[in-house]
Amino acid sequence: MAKVLVVDDDLMFALDLQHQVERLGHEVVGTARNASEAQLAFQQNHPDLILMDVALNGQMDGIETVHALQGARPLPVIFISSANDAQTITRAVQEAPYAYLLKPFKIWELYESIELALHDGDQDACREDGHPSTASADVAGADSSLGKHGIPFTPASEPQQAEIKVIAHKPKEFFELFR
Hints:
Blueprint lengths: L2 E5 L3 H13 L3 E6 L2 H11 L3 E5 L8 H11 L4 E5 L4 H8 L5 E4 L4 H17 L12 E4 L2 E5 L5 E2 L4 H12 L2 H5 L3
Parallel strand pairs: 1-2, 1-3, 3-4, 4-5
Antiparallel strand pairs: 6-7, 7-8
Helix pairs in contact: 2-3
């Protein structure tokens, strides 16, 4: 279970996103509506992942906010936006996000983006010198390792794997129920 920070100036969307993230098995450790709230929540809650709206109200937009936060401690970011223009996407790409989701998106798109962001480091397990860059630990009997972002990765339990398989095999119409 990852600790997620949700940043969006639309309170209703942020609450819905929080609910969706929690349904996917992660903990939302904070919500913020602007850059200053995001910076405070980031410092207080030490998230593993940030879901960031690109168009925030205030002095800084979401892209500028991510840039500031990444300077303090790099971690995976998923941008969420209704902006689909080349200039915005080019600016967002400069911050190396793990995904850029266009509103409205499907729950399975959110799920895939979060899982890829959290587990990307596990695919890059070796450093340039060829030695493993992950640390292992035995947590409550389950193998756990730290990805390149220091995010704990614990394999899904059998019931979770079964649920994931069910979600993966449902037709798109199934996901319309969650919109």
